[in-house]
Amino acid sequence: SKALAGIFQSDRLPGRAAPYGESGRGQFHFSPRRGWNNDPNGLVFFKGEYHMFFQHNPYGWGWGNMHWGHAVSRDLVHWEELPIALFPDAMGTMFSGSAVVDHEGRMALFYTAAGSSFVQGLAFSSDGRNFEKWSGSPIVGSLAQGDRDPKVIWHEPTRKWVMVLYLEFPNRPTIQFLTSPDMKKWTPTSRIEGFHECPDLFELPIRNRPGQSRWILTGANSDYMVGAFNGETFTPETPILKGHRGRGFYAAQTFSDTPGRRIQIGWFLTETKGMPFNQSMSIPMELGLTLDPDGLRMTWTPAPELQSLRSKSYSFGSVQLSPGAQNPLGGLNEELIEAELSFTPSPGARLRFALRGAVLEYDAGREKLIVNGQEADAPLVGGKQSLRIFVDRTGCEVFASGGRCFVPMPVNLDPRNRMLELAAVSGKIQIEKLDVHRLKSIWPK
Question: Which of 39, 147, 363, 392 is catalytic?
Fold first, then answer.
């Protein structure tokens, strides 16, 4: 009933700029040409391309009217937006899901149809451009209420497809596991509680235990459990562990069919008022699993493909900081930034790093990283700390402690503020590495 109030007549999209050239658009975070986006869906590597589908309202700036938008990339960095892949139908609007490559070499899409009841549907594509919904859908009917977000994987030991599905019971978020020999007939096998929305399930090798691996179950807020999975039941070996330590990162999914590594992208929640688009995606990250003094823990590392965006680098070598020392970054004036910083702090020292209005501090006494007031555990490793920071128009993403600490921070930065400042608030800090890279835009000019 409120739709007409949001309609106006114009020969151009709002924003008064060529597509992808708007002043408020993140320059290395994917966002659609127009409309709203939220959850990444159907991340899959297919015929030489990374496919990213996403929750999309192509006709409005806010959430609603869900379709599956679609973009492809050959390098995980530069994306080409393609026509809508899945439209609403008689079963409902198109909620989140996943994609895999089936045994016939087709792409198979699994999605939630959100109508009077929530059910799961299936679509196929032979070329990654044209999609046909299977006429036998729904493949899974309603099991509880609000059933949604099917994540499907192939489980080689049991030679079956596995679906991980969220069931919305009152005050009891539940993950349902199902199996299928053919993607079309599904049998429920087990349930586990504690995760809300957008589950993901994948296996990771233990980095410092060659030949060993564990399964990871995650939820929409990126919290996770480490455990064993036999194709039907997930057996936790840890409690639910904290995933990201920042804000505005949600519904992350990992790519299917990328042998040798596990790549994750999440929804990066930055409002872009006055623009023809709203929201974006995080940078791509490689996930790892390591055994440290606290037990098995996941790590997040920026995908190496992002290094292709570096257009100019400034290296400052070894620097010692103490309160009142000169800013070693004085004179730099950059908008899109990747910063690499490794340092050894004296006991109780505190480092402050201001990047275009985003403020990072490291409290060595408490081993805490603080990003725009958000605190995160970031332990020293051998008495040292390493930071890797990406700064875009729509926020920053910070990696610390060998990838154990990931702090996303969506924020619309002032385009006039390009000041970079590094200082010791207290104590002495020995900088072993200080590099700042100017980054290029992913969008065509």
Answer: 39
Strands (E), 181-258: 187-193, 200-205, 213-218, 224-229, 234-236, 249-254
Closest CA to 118 of 87, 139, 133, 100: 139
Catalytic annotation present for 363: no
CA–CA separation, 276 and 164 (whole Å): 35
Cα 72 from Cα 70, distance rounded (Å): 7
Helix (H, G, I), strand (E, B) or coil at 395: strand
pLDDT in tens, the chain (445 residues): 677 777 778 877 665 677 788 999 999 999 999 999 999 999 999 999 999 999 999 999 999 999 999 999 999 999 999 999 999 999 999 999 999 999 999 999 999 999 999 999 999 999 999 999 999 999 999 999 899 999 999 999 999 999 999 999 988 999 999 999 999 999 999 999 999 999 999 999 999 999 999 999 999 999 999 999 999 999 999 999 999 999 999 999 999 999 899 999 999 999 999 999 999 999 999 999 999 999 999 999 999 999 999 999 999 999 999 999 999 998 899 999 999 999 999 999 999 999 999 999 999 999 999 999 999 999 999 999 999 999 999 999 999 999 999 999 999 999 999 999 999 999 999 999 999 999 999 998 7
- Nearest Cα to Cα of residue 268 among 412, 64, 439: 412
- pTM for the whole structure: 0.95
Q: What are the Cα distances from residue 265, in Å, to 41, 95, 294, 352?
A: 10, 17, 26, 28
Residue 6 has φ and ψ, to the nearest 5°, of -95, 5
